[in-house]
């Protein structure tokens, strides 16, 4: 049975797409994309205020990247507000609890990704930073890093 692996990003940076593309190329190179036992699902909580970005800075995933991921989910203020309304209407949370779980800030954006990964029945969740690239420093025979 395949593992549904949620890849979580919390971002407010325009270069998010470049970081995502680098990771996907790395997964392709290492066989993760073609492994039938792993299904990759992208969960992105974005903040338009952090660097004055637009929704398109996040949601316009290049086709060559999107086709290698099984599903892509984006959560901005509107999507989160709708989920809060649904949860409050069901009596699952109140306004104070909603603010504590789904409010503004990096930690609460991570809560959003975690919540939606659980809601979408992901088996695992891996958070990646939008300001880190999957690059390893290596040493040659002389001990010099490259």
Written overview of the protein:
- The chain is an alpha/beta fold and 146 residues long.
- The protein has six helices and four strands.
- A four-stranded parallel sheet has the order 3-2-1-4.
Summed up:
The protein is an alpha/beta fold and 146 residues long. It is built from 6 helices and 4 strands.
Task: Briefly note the structural class of the backbone.
Answer: alpha/beta
Chain-averaged pLDDT: 91
Helix content: 25-40%
Low-confidence stretches: none
Compressed to H and E, one letter per element, the order equals: EHEHHEHHHE
Largest sheet features:
4 strands, parallel
Shape: globular
N- and C-termini, Cα separation:
40 Å
Radius of gyration: 17 Å
Into which percentage range does the β-strand content fall? 15-25%
Order of strands across the biggest sheet? 3-2-1-4
By DSSP (H or I, 4+ residues per run), the number of helices equals: 6
Number of strands: 4
């Amino acid at each position: 049975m395949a593992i549904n692996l949620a890849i979580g990003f919390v971002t407010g940076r325009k270069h998010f797409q470049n970081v995502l593309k680098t990771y996907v190329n790395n997964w392709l190179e290492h066989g993760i994309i073609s492994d039938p036992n792993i299904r990759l699902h992208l969960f992105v909580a974005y903040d338009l205020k952090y660097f004055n970005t637009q929704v398109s800075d996040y949601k316009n995933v290049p086709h060559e990247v999107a086709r290698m991921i099984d599903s892509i989910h984006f959560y901005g203020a509107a999507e989160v507000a709708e989920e809060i309304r649904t949860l409050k209407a069901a009596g699952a949370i109140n306004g104070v609890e909603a603010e504590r779980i789904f409010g503004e800030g990096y930690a609460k954006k991570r809560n959003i990704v975690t919540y939606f990964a659980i809601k979408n029945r992901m088996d695992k969740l891996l958070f990646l930073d939008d300001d880190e690239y999957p690059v390893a420093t290596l040493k040659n025979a002389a001990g010099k890093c490259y």
